[in-house]
Design goal:
Rossmann fold; methyltransferase; 21% strand; globular; 7-stranded mixed sheet
Length: 421
């Protein structure tokens, strides 16, 4: 098995989460009695380019099929994040009706809709038909395709190169990272800009965010590694922002290397230096992650078992991929420890979580069932969830998260306290 970027042999395990089903493959009631496919979820680090990557993977075409269940528009905080990004880009680069903004992995048009409100022409590219259909209902033209070098070449030949190419939370999802970046270089106009967002590997390691490892995420990225990959395809990262999204993400701004009109910012140089100071260019940095993962699993299981012994009810919030990774690695099955999970997306309600087979209900079930604890599985939006469900204090309900460490807290808690288990 070789590195997907540089071709070096992969020998060093970063994290082994056993075998589990794809994290977004929700189940219908009819599927509960059918065999469920599980795949190995083992990640390796390349000792040459330090790209962290899944080993054997489920085929992308199977993961991002016609019934993909993640719709970006069902998170109010994510919509606000997208709107702020568009406002910032309009102010910084001044796109007009003569510009073209293209987004790879455009999902349901949640972001491009804001450019369209400015009167800027847009084009979405997404391989999932159901999300593309919702984008079309918003008036966002969307190609139901994977973004590849071949697609970029075809679009460029038709005069559809982008003034701005947006690649938010997709670089980690592509099985052939070299082909994807090669496509970027073809898709962006000579004076154009590409922006990318992805969870920062530095935060994943430091905050033990192992639940962001799942089959859809083929790669786990640092600025050091992405800078190297981009340089190989004539692209230069000229600016970077650190974002709170997804537990700590990077937003990169890149251009063609030949375009010297956009100088490399001090922020890029500072973050590269900080990653080096942390040791991200050394193998040792990646070799002590697994024991910390195992501690999280043990603490969560002890907490859930104690609630069971005390006769307390635990519900989950968010049928998110990260939650499914966590529950699968903990070996949680059925409703014995977590009675149900709620989610705002109607595309998930009435279905069951992969692996654990916990039912997914409408958020109203929290008020109806009055659980003692609500375990927030997408911990990255905990503030949003706590605000939505502040009413659980009416019956003494509390919130819990498992990552980076087990904590319980109430809506009025100023500082979350670590649970003694």
């Amino acid at each position: 098995m070789n590195c997907r970027h540089c071709g070096s042999s992969l020998h060093h395990v970063f994290a082994d989460l056993g075998h589990c089903p794809p994290a977004n493959s929700m189940l219908s009631s009819a599927q509960l009695d059918e065999p469920e496919l599980h795949y190995p979820l083992k990640t390796y680090v390349c000792d040459n380019c330090f790209l962290v990557q899944v080993g054997e993977v489920k085929k992308a075409v199977e993961i991002f099929g016609n019934e993909y269940t993640y719709f970006s528009s069902y998170s109010s905080s994510w919509l606000e994040h997208a709107r702020r990004y568009v406002d910032m880009m309009m102010e910084r680069f001044g796109y007009t009706a003569d510009s073209l903004v293209v987004e790879a992995a455009s999902n349901d048009g949640y972001l491009l809709q804001y450019f369209r409100q400015y009167g800027v022409p847009v084009l979405g590219i997404d391989p999932t038909a159901n999300t593309a259909h919702m984008a079309a209902e918003r008036g966002i033209e969307t190609l139901v395709e994977f973004f590849t070098t071949e697609l970029a070449r075809n679009l460029a030949a038709k005069g559809q190169q982008a003034d701005l190419l947006i690649c938010n939370n997709v670089l980690a999802h592509v099985p052939d990272i070299n082909d994807f970046v090669s496509g970027i270089s073809l898709m962006v106009k000579p004076g154009g800009v590409v922006t990318l967002e992805f969870p920062h590997l530095l935060n994943l390691v430091e905050q033990c965010q192992f639940d962001t490892i799942y089959h859809e995420h083929f790669s786990y990225l640092s600025l050091l590694t992405v800078n190297r990959i981009f340089a190989a395809y004539g692209l230069t990262i000229f600016d970077v922002e650190e974002l709170p999204t997804h537990g700590g993400s990077l937003r990169l701004f890149a251009r063609h290397t030949a375009d010297e009109s956009k100088p490399i910012s001090a922020a890029v140089l500072e973050l590269l230096a900080r990653e080096r100071a942390a040791g991200m260019h050394t193998l040792a940095y990646y070799q002590n992650f697994q024991p910390r993962v195992d501690v999280v699993r043990l603490e969560l299981l002890e907490f859930l078992l104690e609630q069971k012994r005390q006769g307390r009810k635990v519900a989950g919030y968010g049928a998110a991929a990260k939650g499914n990774t966590l529950l699968s690695y903990c070996g949680i099955q059925g409703t014995d420890l977590i009675q149900f999970v709620v989610d705002a997306s109607p595309h998930k309600q009435g279905k069951y979580l992969p692996g654990s087979h916990i039912p997914v209900l409408h958020p109203d079930a929290i008020r109806d069932e009055q659980p003692d604890y609500v375990l927030i599985l997408p911990w990255n939006i905990r503030a949003e969830v706590v605000e939505q469900l502040e009413y659980i204090e009416e019956w003494g309900g509390r919130f819990a998260v498992a990552i980076p460490k087990l904590e319980t807290f109430s809506h009025t808690t100023v500082a979350a306290d670590v649970v003694p288990v």
